[in-house]
Amino acid sequence: MHFKFPDYLTVSPVPFPGIAQLKIDYTLVPRSKTEVSESDLFESSEGVTDVRALVLVMVLFSISPVFGQQPKEFTNNIGMKLVLIPAGTFTMGSSKEERGRHSAETQHEVTVSTPFYLGKYEVTQNEYEKLMGNNPSSIKWPTSPVETLRWKDAVSFCEKLSELPEEKAAGREYRLPTEAEWEFSCRGGSETAYGFADSSELLHEHAWFAENAQNKHHPVGEKKPNRWGLHDMHGNVWEWCKDWYGDYPSGALTDPQGPSQGSERVIRGGSWPVAAETHFRSAYRANYVPTDSSVVLGFRVALNASNRKP
Ligand SMILES: [Ca+2]
What we know:
This protein is 20% helix and 15% strand. It is an alpha+beta fold.
């Protein structure tokens, strides 16, 4: 095991909300004037700004790239479901008041500049075997997450999936999510320590962890989804991310990809034998040697949302 866990795990509870902020990036939205004239939008007959019209247009603009051009969810040719994640800006990391916080979780503003899709579930053993012809998992169950695979095995899965004729024709290039994309998706717009609250009181409803997992992982999707419809972001198995592990850079970032080199890759989310509830927080970071594998470690796939219909 190569996780770098904080050396303080029992901190007095501090019910303090995170300060992450989700902001829709309106600059990505095409601003056509064909439907409503500018004067209709911004001025009434008295020349006063019509706030209601402005708000309506902003709402329509904000949802159009999510619901107008791309489906909110789709199923690919081997039966995997993916959920559309909007572009946006959020505060990555945790506040100093967050219970169980690790010093590596320095808060910084991150912008995810373009929408992307993320697996609704961890990749299952069924899906992995269907594509790769083998199931490396130590605890075998077809609808449970595939585990005991190295980082490059997860990358190879993405590459092979992208090469399927139907997927290639649809322009889908699968990859692992970046660490920033993973945390952004886990938060689902939330500003709290967990995707559902600041307290871990309801963790059992959202995650398989030491308290309820009965010493094994479980079929994906049995626990409640987060706000954006993603299951098992907290718990079940840790998930490989694309990035090398390293300290966060200072200042605001757009589409961060992590350090250019390193010795361990980022893993996120916590897993079934982990007892410390604070390890399931949205901001919690861990790392693992990419050439190693573990029964507690799997992955989910991501792909950029292009203009082509998925
Ligand atoms: Ca997970």
